[in-house]
Amino acid sequence: MTARKPSRKASRKSAEVPAEAAVETVTEPAVEPAAAETAADAAATPAPAPAATATKAAPAKRTRPKRADAGPPRPRQAGDSQGARPAPALDGADRGRLLAGDHHAPHDVLGAHPIPGGVLVRALRPFARAVTVLATGLRAELHDDGDGFFSGVLPVPQAPAYRLEVAYDDNTIEVEDPYRFWPSIGELDLHLIGEGRHEELWRALGAEPMEHQGVAGTRFTLWAPNARGVRITGDFNYWDGTGFPMRSLGSTGVWELFLPGVGEGALYKFDICRPDGSHTVRADPMARRTEVPPATASIVTARHHEWQDADWMAHRGDRPVHEAPFSVYEVHLASWRPGLTYRQLAEQLPAYVKDLGFTHVELMPVSEHPFGGSWGYQVTGFYAPTSRLGTPDDFRFLVDALHRAGIGVIMDWVPAHFPRDDWALAEFDGRPLYEHADPQRAAHPDWGTLEFDYGRTEVRNFLVANATYWCEEFHIDGLRVDAVASMLYLDYSREDGQWSPNEFGGRENLDAVAFLQEMNATVYRRNPGVVTIAEESTAWDGVTRPTDSGGLGFGLKWNMGWMHDSLQYVAKEPVHRKYHHNDMTFSMVYAYSENYVLPISHDEVVHGKRALVSKMPGDWWQQRANHRAYLGFMWAHPGKQLLFMGQEFAQGAEWSEGHGPDWWLLDPSYEASGDHRGVRDLVGDLNAVYGAVPALWQRDTSPEGFSWVDGGAAEDNVFAFLRYDADGSPLLAVSHFSPAVRSNYRLGVPETGTEGWVEVLNTDAARYGGGDVRNEEPLKAEAVPAHGRPNSISLTLPPLATVWFRPA
Question: Where are the compositionally biased (Basic and acidic residues) regions (predicted)?
Answer without folding.
Answer: 92-105
